[in-house]
Amino acid sequence: MFLLVPLLVSAQDFKPLEKFIQTKSQIREGGVDVFNYLGQDYLIAVSTVQVVTAKGTKTETQCRTVGSTKAKRDMLAFVNGSTISSYTELVFSEEVQEGPQGRQVEASQSYTEVIKESVVGSINQITPLCGWYSEDGSLYYYASIKPIQ
């Protein structure tokens, strides 16, 4: 019976549900929630992936890989909870420039807030639901689905 559930999930027609998630749901730009579709409850996670970064532009395959990992993490946090910690850091820096007018020292300080989230656990039977780009193509949204029994 355990092997049939993932097969049933991938064999079902989720096109109307995909359309709803992409256009009308409260998680269309990211998040996790429980949805009922054709009498079955599903946990659905939508993760957001930045397409263009300082390291370059991600392909759709790379976006799916990152999106899948983030969606699993988000589902775990939704089900098991997470631990969030933060601290503020004061950073000092000096920049020395030498030129024809002599030495010039520019000092600066800035506060940086560091936030960390820790999620522990494992989750099974997650199936890709769909993926789509934002209107301007800068973000990729990836949705995963898990049947709730």
Summary of the model, kept short:
The chain starts with a helix and ends with a strand.
Q: Can you walk through the features of this model?
A:
With 149 residues, this protein is of the alpha+beta class. The longest helix has 21 residues, at 60-80. The protein is built from three helices and eight strands, in the order ααββββαββββ. The strands form three sheets. Strands 1-2-8-7 form a four-stranded antiparallel β-sheet. Strands 3-4 form a two-stranded antiparallel ribbon. A two-stranded antiparallel ribbon has the order 5-6.
Strand portion: over 45%
Strand order, sheet with most strands:
1-2-8-7
Largest pleated sheet: 4 strands, antiparallel
Q: What string, H for helix and E for strand, traces the elements in order?
A: HHEEEEHEEEE
Query: Span between N and C termini?
Result: 12 Å
Helix and strand arrangement:
Layout: H1 4-11, H2 15-23, E1 31-37, E2 40-50, E3 52-53, E4 56-57, H3 60-80, E5 83-99, E6 102-118, E7 127-133, E8 139-147
Antiparallel strand pairs: 1-2, 2-8, 3-4, 5-6, 7-8
Properties at a glance:
two-stranded antiparallel sheet, 4-stranded antiparallel β-sheet, disordered N terminus, alpha+beta, 149 residues, 8 strands, 3 helices, 26% helix
